[in-house]
Structure formats: structure tokens, C-alpha cells
# Entry
Amino acid sequence: MTERASGTGACPICGKPAATEYRPFCSKRCADVDLSRWLGGVYRVETEESPDAPKKDED
Ligand SMILES: [Zn+2]
# Structure
């Protein structure tokens, strides 16, 4: 019995198999990384965009 057929795919952060408990991530750490990106404004959605804000894409 393996957990390969979970259908959750790989962790978007590190690429490891996702854990059911933290999917789509493999661990709390990776979930936290994603959350940090959120808070960091990487995934800025539906916010008032300041016309003065320069867009930096150095990722
Ligand atoms: Zn991960």
C-alpha cells in the first residue's frame, strides 16, 4: 500500500509528494513558505493598486 495515488500531486514549493494533511504542500514548512509569499504580496489579488507602485519581477 502506497500513497502514490493520492492525486494531490507534488508540493508546489519543493516538489516533494504532497501530504494529505498539508496539501497541496508536503509539510507545514512549505505551507508556511507559501503563506509568507502571500503576506509578502507576491500573490497580490484584489487590492487597491497604487499607480505609483513599481512592479518588480526578480523572482
Ligand atoms: Zn514541500
Remarks:
- Residues 28-40 form the longest helix (13 residues).
- The pocket of zinc ion is lined by residues 11, 13-14, 16, 25-27, 30 (CB under 6 Å).
- The mean pLDDT is 78.
- The helical segments are 28-40.
